[in-house]
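Thread amino acids onto this structure.
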């Protein structure tokens, strides 16, 4: 009987697991861990390693802006991981900075069984500029 009660208590959590988010690509996890450890440059270097040099430089240069707008990072929350197709995922993250949250979207792609690579990095302090309304309701409706 005790087992039945435990199952009934856990039942409300089952639907959330049935719709579990796709697993984080290793390149995303490594980058988020680097960010959490205060190594923004390492995270962006990892995420942009397959990008053209001009785009890579522009993205890695934004680490100072992240620190300016956010302060020190204290961690992150994964908001949603969407499997767009078997070889394409979009990951929405809230970076937990001291001054304010920073909203991050990463798009990862892989061909066949190759390693995942990050094709898009988009961050902003305004969630409406990063998260679609299908992921999070707008902060500023109508703007």
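Threaded sequence (143 positions):
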């Amino acid at each position: 009987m005790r087992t039945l009660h435990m199952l009934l208590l856990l039942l409300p959590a089952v639907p959330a697991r049935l719709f579990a988010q796709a697993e984080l690509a290793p390149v995303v996890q490594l980058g988020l861990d680097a960010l959490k450890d205060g190594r923004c440059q390492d995270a962006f270097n990892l995420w942009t390693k397959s990008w053209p040099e001009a785009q890579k430089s522009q993205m890695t240069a934004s680490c100072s802006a992240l620190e300016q707008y956010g302060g020190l990072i204290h961690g992150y929350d994964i908001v949603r991981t969407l499997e767009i197709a078997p070889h394409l995922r979009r990951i929405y993250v809230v970076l937990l900075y001291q001054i304010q949250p920073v909203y991050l979207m990463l798009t990862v792609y892989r061909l066949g069984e190759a390693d995942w690579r990050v094709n898009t990095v988009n961050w902003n302090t305004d969630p409406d500029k990063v998260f679609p309304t299908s992921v999070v309701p707008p902060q500023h409706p109508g703007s």
